[in-house]
Amino acid sequence: MNTDVPTVAQPGLAPEIAALLKRDPAGLVAAVVQQEATGEVLMVGWMDDTALHHTLTTGRSTFYSRSRGELWVKGETSGHRQWVREVRLDCDGDTVLVLVDQEGPACHTGDRSCFDARVLPATVGLPPVDETPPGRPAAAQVSR
Amino acid sequence: MNTDVPTVAQPGLAPEIAALLKRDPAGLVAAVVQQEATGEVLMVGWMDDTALHHTLTTGRSTFYSRSRGELWVKGETSGHRQWVREVRLDCDGDTVLVLVDQEGPACHTGDRSCFDARVLPATVGLPPVDETPPGRPAAAQVSR
């Protein structure tokens, strides 16, 4: 475990929260980090119970590095900290949505978001015109 | 494989895209689905190469069900389809961000988003007042 992780009062994740989680075989849940107010998706990380506990109790996003096998507090090295505003658990318990205030770029490349750099070629989907419900623009009228 | 998956012209994911992916041990990448324009995070699913290929070429979000071990096209049963607007790959290739136009609720519970129902108790994080950079409200003045 990274010794930079701040000490918190509680010894671990509350049992009532731990009971809600559906972890992957590595014991992790996905964590989607979103900038509060703008709604920008900044990055996706992974959390074990300890990382989630730190995130919930320290006000700083904390993740589990699958490659390094250790906890890391976002911004501890880069200074690009994530201040936690709200944490939500999804319906099946395998993903959390962490609303934050991000200092500086979230991505290690220097981009604001980890999703800024690579757009994949995709067919844009539109409902068939004859299905268009009342009040919804017909496919042919949609601007993109 | 679910036989409801629409037939597409190409036999599989383009090799140049496949080469960018960093799949988990099950061969999957995470897929964060976000409502275009509003920025609302609707759900997180999982995609293998075939699901990503279908998402990129059919205009409909398509996922791999880890529990059922098959592909599923979002809305095929419920009618709550996701029309693809843009697909972005993150910096390390293990997550895609799928911008969509969601028909109706995205969650199987009937909620608009899979993150609507459960807010976890979290300490709100704020930078120390003496660190507050110029032009940024001091912690004590932040409204929440």
What can be said about this structure in brief?
The structure is a homodimer of 144-residue chains. The first copy, chain A, is mostly beta strands and 144 residues long.
By helix and strand content of chain A, what is the structural category? mainly beta
What string gives the helices and strands of chain A in order? HEEHEEEEE
Q: What's the CATH architecture name of chain A?
A: Roll
Multimeric state of these chains? Answer: homodimer
Provide the fold topology.
2 copies of one chain form a homodimer.
Chain A: H1 15-18, E1 29-35, E2 41-47, H2 49-58, E3 62-65, E4 70-73, E5 82-89, E6 95-102, E7 118-120
Describe this structure in words.
The structure is a homodimer of 144-residue chains. The first copy, chain A, is mainly β. Chain A has a four-stranded mixed sheet with strand order 2-1-6-5, covered by helices on one side. In chain A, β5 and β6 form a beta hairpin. The N terminus and C terminus of chain A are likely disordered. At the A-B interface, β1, β2, α2, β5 and β6 of A face β1, β2, α2, β5 and β6 of B.
List keywords for this structure.
144 residues; mainly beta; Ubiquitin-like (UB roll); two-stranded antiparallel ribbon; 2 helices; disordered C terminus
